[in-house]
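@channel sequence for tomorrow's demo:
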Amino acid sequence: MASTVEPTALKREEEEEEDSKPLAEDEDTGAQIAPIIKLQEVAVTTGEENEDVLLDLKAKLYRFDKEGNQWKERGVGTLKLLKHKETSKIRLVMRQNKTLKICANHLVLPTMSVQEHHGNDKSCVWHAADFSDGELKEETFCVRFASVENCKSFKDKIEEITESLTKESGDSAEADAAANLIEKLSVEEKGKEEKVEAKEEPTSKEEKKDETEKQEKSGDGN
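structure tokens (generated this afternoon):
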């Protein structure tokens, strides 16, 4: 009886061992198989092609939620300051890692001011009219950098840009004032000339009257 059971048990064990052995890896034959579907390369545009990068730093961004009275994370990613090659306008753009979703997108204006966030020398806050959600909204942002140096670089660059914009705005205002002054002087000069012509006009009428009287007298004499 034992002789019939033992071979069966042994066979079962061999089958289990065979099943437990790892499958052999497929051998590389060197043959190249052409894909069934050929995919075409598609150019992906980010809207940053016509802009120069002034600053590029890794950071974590927060937005202040007024309704909840708390800070809410917008994402971890790359914060950039970009200058347009044609218009020279500068904007701040931040995209989330992997998804590249925009979590901040606004112009850097002369009025923009970056302040340290509650004594944290790695974080700073500012206000801006942001367009990252597809509509222009006043937002309060807080960004946290990995190091004090990166935070300082961001603050210094923003300060440099705003000072330059303020100076350009002042120069433009002076140019406008000068143009307005020239235009005003031209108008005044033109007004004076018109007054002079108006004064001379009666004299010419009197001369015509005298000439007419002379002609009439001359006719009577004949």
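heads up for whoever presents: The beta strands are 51-65, 70-84, 90-96, 102-107, 115-117, 120-130, 137-145.
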